[in-house]
Amino acid sequence: MRRFWFYLGLIGRYLGLFVTVGVLASAALALVPDVRAPGPFMDRWQENLRVFLLFDYFAIDPNRGFSVWDVLLAASWRTGTLLLGALAFSLGPALILSLRIEQSRNPRISRVTAQVLRSLSNLPVLIWAILFMLVAFQFAGIVPVFSQIREGAGAAVAAAVILPILALVLGDGALGSTLDRFQARARDIGRSETMLAVRARGLRQGRFLVRSMVPDVVDEAASKATLFLSGAIVIEVIFEWQGLGWRIWQALGSVKDYPVILGCVTVVMALVLGAHLLRDVLRAAALPHLR
Amino acid sequence: MELYLRGEFSHSRVTSQRRRRVTPSACMVVAFILSAGLMLGLPLALAGQAGGGNLVYGEREAMGSFNPLSDQPMRAVSDRLFSVLFEGLFRYDYEVEEFEPVLAESVQVEPGAGSALVRLRNDVLWHDGSRFTAEDVVASYEAILGNPTHDRLDIISLVESVESLGQYQVRFRFTDPLSDPERVMDLWLLPARQLRSNPDELGVRPIGTGPYQFQERNIEGTVRLTRFEEYWGGSTNLDRLEMRLSVDVGTMTTQLLADVLNLVVDLPPANLVQVENAGTHAIRPYQSYTIYTFAYNLLDPVLNDARVRRAFTMALNRQQMLNQWYDGRGEILAGPFVPTAPFFDPNRRALPYDPGEAAALLDAAGFQDLNGNGIRETPDGEPMELSLLLPVARQATGSAEQNVAQDFIDALGGLGIQVRLENVDRDIWEQRVFHDRDYQVAWLPWTFDPIYDISRLFHSRNIRPGGANVTQYANADVDRLLDQYAEAQDPALRRDLMRSVQGFIAQEQPYSFLFTVDRHAAARNGFVLPRIDPYFFFTHIRDWYFIPEFR
To answer: What is the complex's ipTM, to 2 decimals?
Structure first.
């Protein structure tokens, strides 16, 4: 029963945060003058709140050709894929390298690899994106934009999937900071008294090490999801990956599409808060004393 | 790839201890080598064209509603597609500078030109297979005349009524006599049945009579049109026309060079060199009928003096602006007409760049720096300060506007006038300039349609909110000349009248006319575009084709 109330409280806390941020975002959007929907601030805020709270996105607008819901669904799927890919490509290698460095007797290759990745990770996302785009085009004649996933073949499809994800992983120091954190944590665990006991008893160290690092991995995934969402806007524009960031950028064009902007903000908010909620739930499940 | 690596990792755990040590690191190395290989150029060519005879072109803005009679603002991206989906009774032909009949068979102007009788073609089908009749013309004009905010209302409001006289004949009645009634008959027509029963559906699934019919619009903003086999004008060369959305100009250019796109209709100057250097694509410059101006609000006490406005124009080094920010690809303007426009007066010279003369004009108008602080004062003793309204730039092409605006501020600063830049969102800019007239000086590019009707800008009847006379220019002589022009039949007289109008405008400078900038289409070699329409671009698409070996 205590556990039930704990999780209910956790969900309630994030739901409250979601609604609070949504209400504030609705107000912020109502502050932006919109000549197509003129009126006092309070009226426009109310309208935005109605759309946000009732999720009123299903009507097909002739100016868009689709409902906001259709647009959000397609965009969320794409951004979600990009995020998951980036999380897998950053957390996976960082975890493996950290474990190898801690466990191996001669971890030279792992150390060098980690160092190289850390250095590469210092460049901004924008630079990586442009670099990948240029290099793919100049040397392979490939334009790794999203439409290639459907219409291209072979290398063009692979490049259109992998390069945006790689740019996101390598840019803005994301991979470097994950490596630092995992390596430090693996070292701490490796030198802990519990680990000494594990070694003394001849138990499998790797298994213990991995289990001990689960909370850190979950924690890192949640915080990196937020970071990757910011980077995704740049990636989506350059690689024409028509996710939430691209949609916001496009909706801010000469013909403003405020319902799409509000919808995208709502979904981004839900993704960030959802990632953090998941982190708290998993941490609580893994570390009972937190409950 | 990610799953494959994971599989390898779990497999290695059940093998020897040594292999367990090596494999994960090796996997990492292999993964990154593979990724690097993709980046650094696996020598694989792209897939070829989507298919023979399919034209794929790029746009930077999404298509809005497909209903050309809805009250959405006219936008180039929409107009280009409308020009292949829809047709009007007449269409302006730039080469012969005349209207040519499209869905009309003939027009008979009735005595006094207060009305015109139009006979329609009887062999035209809508894209849904139904027959085009007089009722469709009546419904289309009723739709636009009933919409007080439509952009075309300045012209279409010259039509008082349209009545059906049988299945293939209509009578237009005009509010004033019109010598060239064809200019109000280029409205894109829609089927009466859908227009009256469900106009919103036409915004999503359009039905026209043009050579291409709507196939689909997907969530990514791609629009596909297919050849309309029952087209009354015969067959067309290209099977399909596809518009792809690409918000980043750099990415669009790369897609063009890699043949993902066959055509870009308006390549910014900054990206031209890259395409030119590639040597695989042809650049086609075309006159756009776009003029760049600074508009002055003539009801402002400072700006209602023509000497002040002339001084501003003479203080601007327009040639340098054009060279510096538009790569010199354009021409300086003396008035509202671009050199290829009808009624362009080649003898009229633009005001020279002469800051000394500009300062003298301001002195003569009573705007002098009497207290020696470097800022001129108005005759009332107030410091001479102005605001310049500029829409926020988002695209690469927009940065040139910012630079030109800064040049304006610097040039007037040199004359002792303080100019404050008001960077506002494009919606707000439109509202303040076109509806509220809440501005002093505004950056204002005008793009004219084929009719090139400058009376919209200068006739006092268009001072109304939403009208195009945003400077609130009112001159009884100009109104009279424009009215005479509308009624005149003789081309020489019309030319003389329009040149007289240009004389007044050059004298009074309600705008500082800066320059027109060439547009550039880029198409892959092997795609032949004998003619490009400067406004709608695709008007002559039926003559375009791929050379077979390049398909």
So the answer is: 0.75
